[in-house]
Amino acid sequence: MSSGANFASYLVGGRLDLPFMPTKTNPYIEGIMIESQMAGKVEHKLTIQEDCELLSVAVGVSNYEARDYWNLYVGERLVCKNIYTKDLPEGMYLTAIIPCKQGTQLHFEFFNEGGKPKVVWANYQTLK
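Structure (tokenized):
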């Protein structure tokens, strides 16, 4: 290629930068469990104890009903909205890493629209 254009067939910097690739290297997964006895919203708030990067969220429910759904806020920012439950645990891999400073709150909301009692599990996959 002698057109004078700047062209490279590789990553010039050697890696993709944040937010598309993490900068931390120590895996850490924290799980929560919430019980929902009847129709309505239940929620859980988890405060981050040290700086980390949120990679994904996995959610499972003991009794799946088509109308049940969940939301996730990181700090004040809504990052997962109206995610309906499916007949299997679901992993939500984020397309961009979300940096979380110590003290950031992960706010998980579950909406039991079906009304049957159930247990909800959520795992937050991070790097520290």
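The beta strands are 27-36, 40-47, 52-61, 69-74, 77-84, 90-100, 105-112, 118-127. Residues 27-127 form a domain with the Jelly Rolls fold (CATH 2.60.120.230).
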